Every structure is written in C-alpha cells, then in structure tokens.
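For anyone still unconvinced, we reproduce a single protein record, the chain in one-letter code, the fold tokenised, and leave readers to judge:
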Amino acid sequence: MRTTLLTIFLLALVSSCKQEPQQEAVAVAYDEAALIDAQQDHENPRMRFKLISSRVEREYMFAPFSAALKAFGEERYHEMKPLVLEKNIPELQEAVANNAFTYKDLCLFYIWRMREYESRPETALNTIIAINPVILQQAEEADKIRIKGQEELHPVFGMPILLKDNIGTSEMPTTAGAVALLDNRADDAFITKKLKEHGALILGKANLSEWAYYFCQGCPVGYSAIGGQTLNPYGPRQFETGGSSSGSGVAIAANYAVAAVGTETAGSILSPSGQNSVTGLKPTVGVLGRTGIVPISGTLDTPGPMTRSIVDNAILMDAMFGEDPDDAASMKREMSFMDGLDSLSLKGMRLGVYEPFVNSDSLYAQTVGRLKRAGVEIVVFEEQEGNGLNGFLTLLNIDMKYDLPVYLNTQASKNITVRGVADVVDFNLADSLVRMPYGQGLFEGILKDSTTTDEVQAIKDRLRIAGQEFFDPALKEAGVDAFLSINNYSAAYAALAKYPALCMPMGYRESGEPVGLTLIGLPYTEPELLQLGYAVEKELQARKIPKNYN
C-alpha cells in the first residue's frame, strides 16, 4: 500500500431478493494518483493532499463480520433504513421496544452501511479506524437484558457509539492516528467506562487529525497515518472536514452510528460539527472526566458528544457525566442534562451577536434575523480590539511536553516504547513517508520550546483573562443567555476562558458546504445551553442528510 496504485476492497453484492449467496469481498485496484493530482489546484492549500488512503498495512476491518453480514442481508438493511437513518435515540429505542429490530440488528445495520460506503473509492470517507470485534456478542447480551425487563435502562442502553481514536477502550487499540501507537492496547478511558456502565455499545474508533491536530504544520485536517485522509460527505475532496474530531463528525453526518464522542482543545469538536452539519458540545473543562484520553493540554482538553440532534447530545452527556477521581480538573457537581430539555421558549431569550459576523456572513445574518422574528432579543456587540492569543502555542507546547509522557507512562499499554515527544519524533524519522508525510513541525517546535513552568503559568493566567474578556461584555455585563458565533470561529477564546460551547447545524452555503451556529455560555451552564439549543433546533430545522449518503 505504498504506491499510488492502491488496493481497496469492494463488495460484489447480488440481489438478496433472488436469495442468491452473497459473494466475498474482492480486491479492485484503482489509481489514486489522479485524485491527488486534481487536488493540487484546490484554492485551500490544506486541501492539496499528498495521499488519501493510509499507507499503513492493517487487517480488513469488516472481515470478522462476513458471516453475520451475509445472514443480515441487503434486504434487511433496506427494510431498516427508514427506521434508522436520521432517527434520534428515543425514536430508535421506541423501534426496539416495538420489536422492529434488535440492538444486534442495529449494529449490523451500521456495519453494513460502513462497508457499503467505505469499500468503494467514490464514496469512501476514511472515517473509521477500527470496528469493535466483539460488538455483536455485546449487542446480543444487551438484547437479553432488555427482554428480561428487570431494570430501568438508560436511554443510551444498546446504542452503538463511536469513539475518537484518542479515547481508550479495551476492545481496540487507541492510536491517536499515529503509527507509534498502532498497537496501544490501553484500558477503557473514564468516559468509556461510564458509557458502558449505562449500557452503551462501543461500535468502533473514528479517525482524527493525528495527535489531535497538534503534530504537523499546515497539513490537512482529518489526516492521520493510521486512518488516512477523512473526507467530508457533503463534498468529498471539496470541503474540509474540520478537525481534529473529523472522523467523529463525518461518521455521524453519514449515519455510521447513533452518536460519537470527540475531544477538543480549542475547536476540535466545534470545527467538525460545523463542517459536517452535526451537533457538538465542548463542555466546561472538568465536567467530563479525561483519564485515558491521549492529551494535548491538561489545561484545555475535554471530551464531548457529537450527534445529529440536541436530545442525543443531552443523553450522551448524561451517560458520560461523573466525577473522575484521577482527573485533577474533575469535580463533584449536580447537573441534569435531560430534565426539562424542552422547557424553554425562544420568545424573550436574549442572545448576543458579533457585528463583524453579521456584516460578513449572510447565513449568520439571516439566522439572527430569523431568531429575532421568533421573539429573541438580539444584543449586538462590536469587534474586540487587540490580540489576546499571544502565547497560545507556548501553552500547548509546554502542556503537551509534560502531559503526553504522563499518559504514555500511566495509560498506554506496556508494549508501547515511546515515552515522550522526542521519542515519537525519532520513531517517525525512521520511515517518514509512512509515518509523517506532512512532517512533524509542531512536535519539533515542542522540543525547541524552552519556556519554564513558571513562565507558562503566567501565560495561562493572562490568556484565561483574555478569553473571558472576549465574552464577558455579553455574558456577564449585558446578561445575555448565550453568545452566538459560527463554527469554531470563537473556539480559542472559549477554550481559554473555559466557557462551554455548543455548535449545531445552521444551514449551507450556496456551494453546499455546511455551516454551524455556535452558542457559548458561562461555565457549568451546559444544561441551559442544551435547552436553548433545543429551542433553536426546533426553529431552524437546518440539518439535511448528505445527498450521496441517504
């Protein structure tokens, strides 16, 4: 797989209505070089790909499910399609309760769908790194528990969920997209344990921007050595996927799972949510535990849910919530994400909008006008002055210099030999074409950064204040219920202020590119943001399924 003539597996499917046996996967060659050549004229330099498919040899991920998929059949897939596509968790649970399908059926539906699209070069999105090899057995157990009906089950029970591949789960390696962690058999992360405690099924691992996009400089978002180049279902090779939780956003947009979990340092949930017309919540740092997640910054990192609807977002938040005893930022709090979700009316709400966005983005301006007509009081704020982000990269450099070795020494499996950034840099140099085709400029920058811990603490304090000053005229002084932004445009300031942010579908450009509306609030107001998001979602009803993935 190290030439431009790449081999992928295509499935020769025959009509199930004729009851003919399904053929096995066959290898079909295609020339990827033409696709890459065409990218070199893209107006966005980050979209001028060097490769699309991964050069890392891995087992064919659908092989363990060959017999089960054959028994499931194409006819059953199409029978379930209107009952599953774009449905939220309550609707799926209702279908299961009505015996329309089982949890095992639901897992097979998504695996069939992934194989259908990811095995064809014209539709492959490179969004899945691994599928849980025991998912069907786990789903069968969930079905047995449901049938017994002896306990009240959480709404997430039996739902197939994808994890970004920097989040630990015992069934599959946790790679962060990097060859150095190819066989990192880490244990369940804290949030993975919480999901499993509530009965969620971990379907697989989603691709990501390698090392959560703190690795190479100016490289494509959504690229990792393990997973290859993630593509946007609304315009493969035309629109960016957003990063670094690109695989999580793309997979949910394409209906490859019920929901996914991403992680964010500064925009890594918000960006792919906006770019893929899904709903992503970046919580206040400490609301969700972080133990077992490959880090960038202990100061800013947080996991968060990525879904097709607000109700699913709230359900995932509830399932992952809890005090993490091994995370210094985690704290014991009482928070309810699902109660009263539909209790707010837009009428009388006060929302802050940013004048430069109103003047430069017609879709944002139209959305603001629509919310105003729905009874929202709009408070306009002028552009902030000055550059409050000086030192931001230094913060990330020094945090990762110290936080990554802690993960590698305490959370990674014992067979992983790299123990810090320098080890990873040296490891990659041994095979740069496979392990670092876009270089490793940011990792090299970490090694060169000699900022002391005292100096970086002063930078953190200053940046936190800068982030708060960006939003406080609206959120504190004017008392708006939320500040409205676009995609990840205000993500760095929200991250530094440690303010939660919720990105949800706002609409589409004339080109078809999705755009997200981002609601930002004060710390620990996630329940209120979800309630507000629910009301906005009902008003806008903006999400549309990608036309080639319906």
About this structure: The longest helix spans residues 453-477. The CA atoms of residues 349 and 376 lie 5 Å apart.
